[in-house]
Design a protein that fits this description.
By secondary structure, the chain is α/β, with parallel strands linked by helices. Helix content is 43%, strand content 14%. The protein has 14 helices and 14 strands. A seven-stranded mixed beta sheet has the order 2-10-9-8-5-3-4, with helices on both faces. A hairpin with an 8-residue loop joins strand 13 and strand 14. Helix 11 runs parallel beside helix 13. The termini are far apart.
Length: 394
């Protein structure tokens, strides 16, 4: 006979989900009300305002989709592409490949711009491809590639899309709340994210924002959107544009929306500049500690994500055994490599609520002890090196 499930208390320092703030967990337990209740509609409106702040946009169509980040990705593609269209898709990791899948399942053509995993998207190659395909409707790329920990130049890529009369689709699943993201200033057209990374909310919701240009393209469609659930023309009727009368579309995950609202309040209270500075500081301390052990980073310093750190696994290390020891002995989760990087890197997340000194020091101490116990040739002093970074920042 089954019994009530009580999960273990972990410290989540993988690629997501991240540790959830106690304030967010408390919000989940508040009384459930109807998804068309006037009080819930007030909450919806405030979620939109807070998401506009987080995305740095005034886009009217800025909403949380009632599904995880993968649904946000699909929403952008199915609403902006139709069978026979052409999209230029940049791939420098796992998630560019998922963009390609979306394009092809719609019946559109994906023209790939590929770069090595661990390298940013090559802006010059994208420009050449746009010139070679003037009929392309969309340029799609990942701002912060979760599989590698690399940041691409979103501002330059969005500018190229504008110059070539393309709509830009931007994956910001790992960047929202962790690094600079300025949707309006960059001119991004369709942007999607997730709640389980730097927002430190529960998984299962995907914030999205569409520019006026993107909305015009959606309204001008002559071919039905492939997905009924993700058809923005229908979803807009539920999320509305300021009025209180909403058309029923689906039953929103009411309590999860409480959680999102609370996480966005936390973000607003801290402020984006302070939030970004906190992620950078903890990243710098982590990297200093890893370097003290003799470990190397996969990504060049100029393109590293402070919130997602890919660490090269040293020779002679049993990858799976290290991660298992961290989980079982320290209740600490870090991520394995994906795709071509499987068995070659660890992915250490410092996202949102989990980006703090305590977690950095725990991770460094646990990793150093585990590697030494496995007989891996490393240096000692990781925690001291990290503490020097914190002391110098005072």
């Amino acid at each position: 006979m089954s019994s009530t499930f009580h999960p273990p208390q972990r410290t989540l320092m993988g690629p997501g989900p991240s540790d959830v703030s106690p304030r967010v967990l408390e919000a989940l337990g508040r009384p459930t009300i109807g998804h068309l209740d006037p009080s819930f509609i007030d909450l919806m409106d405030d979620c939109k305002r807070l998401l506009q702040y987080a995305f740095q946009t005034k886009n009217a169509l800025t909403i949380p989709i009632s599904a995880p980040g993968s649904a946000g990705m699909e929403a952008c593609f199915v609403n902006l592409l139709a069978p026979g269209d052409k999209a230029i898709v940049c791939q420098n990791g796992v998630f560019g490949g998922r963009m390609k899948e979306n394009v092809e399942r719609i019946g559109a053509t994906a023209v790939m711009v590929e770069d090595d995993w661990g390298q940013p998207v090559d802006v010059a190659k994208v420009e050449e491809t746009l010139k070679a395909h003037p009929d392309a409707k969309v340029l799609a790329f990942v701002h912060a590639e979760t599989s590698t920990g690399v940041r691409s130049d979103a501002a330059a890529l969005c500018q190229l899309a504008q110059q070539h009369d393309c709509l830009s689709i931007v994956d910001t699943v790992t960047s929202l709340g962790g690094i600079e993201l300025i949707v309006d200033a960059w001119g991004a057209d369709a942007v999607y994210s997730g709640t389980q990374k730097c927002l430190s909310c529960v998984p299962g919701i995907s914030p999205v924002t569409f520019s006026a240009k993107a909305v015009d393209a959606i309204n001008a469609r002559t071919h039905k959107v492939q997905s009924w659930f993700l058809d923005m023309q229908l979803v807009m009727g539920y999320w509305g544009s300021g009025d209180k009368k909403r058309a029923y579309h689906h039953t929103a995950p009411v309590n999860a929306m409480y959680a999102l609202h609370e996480s966005l309040l936390i973000l607003e209270e801290e402020g984006l500049d302070a939030l970004h500075a906190r992620h950078r500081l903890n990243h710098n301390a982590l990297v200093a500690g890893l370097a003290a052990m003799g470990l190397e980073m996969l990504v060049d310093e100029d393109y590293r994500l402070p919130q997602l750190n890919s660490v090269v696994i040293p020779n002679g290390t049993d990858d799976a055994a290290v991660r298992a020891t961290l989980l079982n002995d320290y209740q600490l989760e870090i991520g394995a490599g994906l795709g071509t990087l499987a068995g070659k890197v660890w992915r250490i997340g410092l996202m949102g609520h989990a980006s703090n000194r305590k977690n950095v020091l725990l991770c460094l101490d646990a990793l150093e002890n585990t590697l030494k116990a496995q007989g891996v040739n490393i240096n000692e002093g990781a925690v001291a090196a990290a503490m020097t970074v914190y002391s110098d920042a005072r």
